[in-house]
Amino acid sequence: MLPIVATVIGDPCGVGPEVVLKALATGEPRAVSRPLLIGSLAALEKTRAACGIDIALRAVGTLDEARYAQGVVDVLDQFVLDPAQVEFGHASAACGEAVLYWLESAEQLGRAGAVQATIMAPIDSSALRLTGRLKELDDMQPAGTFLLRVSGALRVVPIAEHVLMRDVPATVTTQRVLDLMRLLNDSLRRFGLPEPRLAVAGLNPHAMGPEDREQIAPAVEQARTEGISAVGPISPDAVFRQCIEGRHDAVVSMYHDQGQIAVKTAVFEGACSIFLGLPHVHLSIPHGSAYDIAGRGVAQHASMLAAMLAAAALAGGRGFL
User: Fold this and answer.
1) Within 13 Å, how many C-alpha atoms sit on residue 90's CB side?
2) Which of 19, 81, 207, 266 stands the most exposed, by the fewest C-beta atoms within 10 Å?
């Protein structure tokens, strides 16, 4: 049976609903999954009308009511959102509360195994701040998880996310690098790659610094003794191109921008991010709510479509597209 892929529609005042509906309207996600939306039917209908998207929607109150019928997309609509609070291009506390509720619902369904994959459409931090639930902002990436960015053949995961450059060297330790290599190897195997080929980027130019010799190299050596196919540290100015050329299945980078610059330069439209360390497949896409173009029908949906297709493939253990 095809996997259920549940997509949170994102901030209703932004482009989230638009890119979700456009991606589903292609018909491609339906061919490989059972699509389900988590959000507000009223908000989706407002976006559908404003952007001229030809797609049929049906509200359901519980997951058991979903039918996944051909030509109709089920919307799990459990949060009462006043349509008057949905104004394109303007942050709303009500929409922020709705987004937090939808994300929590998606996580619960994923952890319970009720759905096989979840996707987070673009959200907006300003709307979330208006809720007064600032702690929730820190939970957009669950503790103990890592973000694997995918852009075509290039797949990159950093050992840390938003760390100041001056603090980066202290985060590069043998244990951190090794732990991430183990998680990445196990995750790729679960996704359908039988023998993942991992590359590890160096921290310093040409991978010729003390961290490269004393922290990264020992981690790679230990991983190899555990049966992980790994090479590194490789010069940061070469390793990402090597991955694009097919010599590696994924790259472990030493800090956020080291890998992000490569990913966004390679192919931005069509890129998506996979959360490693969760019991279910969970993805997001690398752009924001774009309030400035919300409701105009001009947002690119290639990244959302890529996320939906990737979620279905990974949840089914079929590897990357």
Assistant:
1) 7
2) 266
Mean of per-residue pLDDT scores for the chain: 92
Query: In this structure, are residues 85 and 46 in contact, taking their beta carbons and an 8 Å threshold?
Result: no
**pLDDT value at 138 more than 60:** no
260-263: which pairs have CB atoms within 8 A and are 24 or more residues apart? 260/149, 260/156, 260/158, 262/154, 262/156, 263/149, 263/150, 263/151, 263/154, 263/156
How much is the pTM? 0.87
Interatomic CA distance for residues 206 and 62, integer angstroms: 55
Please determine, for residue 236, whether its predicted confidence score (pLDDT) is greater than 50.
Answer: yes
Q: What pLDDT is recorded for position 154?
A: 93
Half-sphere exposure of 88 (CA within 13 A, CB side): 18
Q: Report residue 45 as tokens.
A: 């209908």
User: Where is the domain boundary, 222, 248, 264?
Assistant: 264
- CATH number, domain of 223, equals 3.40.1010
In a domain, 321, yes or no: no
Asked if residue 178 and residue 39 are part of one domain, the reply reads no
DSSP per residue, 24-70: HHTSHHHHHSEEEEES-HHHHHHHHHHHT---EEEEESSGGG----T
Non-local CB neighbours of 228 within 8 Å, separated by 6+ positions: 181, 182, 185, 196, 198
Q: Which whole number is the average pLDDT over 169-173? A: 95
Residues 275 and 260 in one domain: no
Alpha carbon distance 244, 157 (integer Å): 14
The one-letter code for the residue type at 85 is Q
